[in-house]
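Example 9 (inverse folding). The structure is encoded as follows.
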């Protein structure tokens, strides 16, 4: 990758491409009408807006409006690289790794924009940053991020054939990470979160923003089986065990493999170390900086960092709660080929409904 392919990352806001005007109020009102007809459930807060069920998944009103707008208006390109995850499955880490890989020809780890901007400000979030002003993007940027389930992605993404990187994680750690994260966000907004036990029951019923979690994972896994060359399917725990291997795998899939000279100079190792949890979380920008600074949506970057540990659920859930989540995940995914039962690899003759 030459330097021109990532020089866009230092452009001023007024240099970005503008092709279409923002979505009009009438369109937003249309989304409100759609939302008024949808099933609702309690959110993970004692007093907050409900979650809406749309196309089989649950969303806050804010995210759902963004998704509806993206479905109507977002124009994907074949060169886009979409980083996808459910909430709290390694999104921040994946963004940092992909961004460092993509920009390495212009910035080494001592000058990378990640030193002054959090990962979430380096890569646009589809249903927030691009949904309302869908063409307001630097057209040289290939990296995008979303939490949207596969079956609800904008049609242009499917039609474009663009590459998708998906990361998933043990649901027990997903629940714990989500509960702490949601609690911080709600406190920032002035709301009180539900007790962990109540939130756990909602999670087990699949009721959380962008949930059910297992359906989110399953949708992208099925797409991976159908389009193996277009979708890279990663697991957080495996990446933790051998990050260097997966950094090289990610770079190759993105179309920016490390050259022999880069291998000799340890570039992949440097990116691996630069983007590890300890280093990222201790960067000053992630300790005291803000995401979307100088906007009404500004939020502290440190909210996105907690522990990043595999198995932290054991410090918060009972063995019975852990077994319950394992059982749900096994029941939902055992016929997919993604996970095997404890006794057999092949799918049983009749899959549970």
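The amino acid assigned to each position is listed next.
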């Amino acid at each position: 990758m030459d330097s021109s392919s990532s020089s866009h990352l230092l452009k001023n806001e007024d240099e970005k491409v503008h092709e279409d005007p923002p979505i009009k109020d009438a369109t937003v009102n249309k989304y409100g009408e759609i939302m008024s007809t949808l099933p609702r459930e309690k959110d993970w807060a004692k007093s907050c807006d409900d979650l809406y069920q749309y196309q089989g998944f649950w969303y806050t009103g804010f995210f759902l409006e963004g998704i509806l707008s993206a479905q109507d208006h977002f124009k994907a390109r074949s060169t886009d690289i979409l980083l996808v995850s459910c909430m709290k499955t390694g999104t921040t880490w994946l963004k940092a790794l992909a961004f460092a890989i993509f920009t390495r020809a212009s910035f080494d780890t001592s000058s990378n924009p990640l030193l002054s901007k959090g990962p979430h400000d380096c890569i646009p979030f589809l249903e927030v940053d691009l949904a309302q002003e869908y063409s307001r993007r630097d057209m040289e940027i290939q990296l995008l991020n979303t939490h949207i389930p596969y079956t609800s992605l904008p049609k242009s993404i499917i039609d474009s054939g663009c590459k998708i990187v998906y990361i998933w994680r043990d649901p027990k750690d997903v629940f714990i990470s989500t509960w702490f994260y949601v609690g911080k966000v709600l406190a920032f907004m002035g709301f009180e979160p539900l007790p962990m036990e109540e939130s756990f029951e909602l999670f087990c019923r699949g009721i959380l923003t962008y949930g059910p979690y297992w359906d989110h994972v399953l949708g992208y896994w099925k797409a991976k089986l159908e389009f193996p060359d277009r979708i890279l399917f990663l697991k957080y725990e495996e990446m933790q065990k051998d990050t260097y291997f997966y950094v090289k795998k990610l770079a190759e899939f993105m179309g920016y493999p490390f050259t022999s000279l880069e291998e000799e100079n340890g570039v992949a190792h440097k990116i691996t170390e630069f983007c590890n949890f300890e280093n990222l979380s201790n960067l000053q920008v992630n300790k005291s900086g803000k995401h979307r600074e100088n906007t009404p949506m500004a939020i502290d970057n440190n909210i996105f960092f907690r522990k990043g540990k595999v198995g932290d659920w054991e410090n918060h859930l009972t063995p019975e709660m852990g077994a319950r989540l394992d059982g749900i995940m096994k029941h939902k995914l055992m016929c997919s080929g993604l996970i095997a039962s404890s006794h057999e690899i092949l799918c049983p003759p009749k899959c549970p409904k």
